[in-house]
């Protein structure tokens, strides 16, 4: 197994108390608002520094290139596996076209090949990753084909208050013991990416089902992005607890556990979120989507 001393660019947040500040100076330049997002997830009880392994090239004391590595515990085709996630890839504008990104990425892949069978990332620039063995994998959303005809039921959910300690504790409990939304592709025991991706979005708690739904309602359309619970209930059970009529449903994860008929449609999340995969990925021929809450 590799150690920090065997790598040129691998760094340790715990060993260098100035590293986080230096890194986020670079990240904020490329991804405005990311420092606030990192602060937000820390308030939710998860920390960027605990979840990400940073590979950073410095010029003197200035961080100029970064590639982060995350661990994503997944259930893939019924098997539990830890997948490596590549994230927050960037180079300082004044230090581009010097080969720094290639140098760091090559070292990242040496490290990852020792730890993970599969690597994933999402990007608007897939051409940057193809030279490193990543390939584009098509994803799908799932639209319900049977008539929903949900007339509206009881008011069976409430908005989580992510500033309230009790609600944060509730969310952590469910994330720790969640049932994967799918045996084709589901997430288990992951917090940091979820909090980063969804911590600023509405999260709805269905108390009698003991689950949190990441969802949006636009008119009479329900968009369901993730379900976090000890058991995955049917879509009908969720609709029954939504007080307004719903006649159209889009599901942004593999929906076989929801007991509903669907049509799979090719889809790029946010219009430009290409899924790139490296390694022997068992879903090449499947119709699926990595939940928004687990994307890096």
TrEMBL record:
N-acetyltransferase domain: residues covered: 7-149
GO MF annotations in UniProt: acyltransferase activity, transferring groups other than amino-acyl groups
Xref: PROSITE patterns: GNAT
Tree of life domain: Bacteria
InterPro entries on file: Acyl_CoA_acyltransferase, GNAT_dom
Pfam families: Acetyltransf_9
Protein name, per record: N-acetyltransferase domain-containing protein
Source species of the chain: Chlorogloeopsis fritschii PCC 6912
């Amino acid at each position: 197994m590799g150690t920090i001393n065997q790598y040129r660019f691998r760094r340790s947040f715990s060993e260098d108390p100035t590293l986080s500040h230096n890194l986020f100076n670079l990240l904020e330049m490329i991804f405005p608002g990311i420092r606030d997002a990192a602060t937000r997830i820390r308030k939710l009880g998860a920390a960027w520094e605990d979840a990400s392994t940073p590979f950073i090239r410095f010029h003197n004391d200035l961080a100029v290139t970064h590639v982060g590595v995350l661990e994503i515990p997944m259930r893939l085709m019924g098997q539990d596996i830890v997948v490596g996630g590549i994230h927050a890839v960037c180079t300082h504008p004044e230090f581009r076209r010097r080969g720094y990104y290639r140098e760091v990425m090559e070292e990242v892949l040496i490290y990852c090949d020792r730890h993970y069978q599969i690597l994933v990332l999402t990007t608007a620039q897939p051409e940057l990753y193809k030279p490193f063995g990543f390939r584009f994998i098509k994803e799908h959303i799932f639209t319900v084909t049977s008539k929903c005809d949900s007339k509206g039921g009881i008011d069976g959910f409430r908005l989580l208050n992510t500033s309230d300690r009790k609600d944060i504790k509730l969310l952590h409990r469910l994330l720790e013991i969640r049932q994967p939304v799918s045996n084709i592709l589901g997430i288990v025991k992951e917090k940091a990416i979820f909090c980063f991706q969804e911590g600023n979005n509405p999260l709805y708690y269905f108390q009698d089902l003991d689950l949190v739904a990441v969802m949006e309602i636009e008119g009479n359309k329900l968009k369901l992005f993730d379900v976090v619970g000890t058991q995955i209930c049917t879509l009908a059970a969720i609709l029954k607890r939504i007080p307004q009529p719903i006649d159209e449903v889009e599901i942004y994860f593999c929906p076989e556990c929801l007991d509903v008929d669907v049509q799979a449609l090719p889809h790029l999340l946010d219009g430009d979120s290409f899924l790139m995969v490296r390694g022997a990925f068992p879903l090449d021929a499947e119709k699926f989507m990595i939940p928004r809450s687990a994307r890096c």
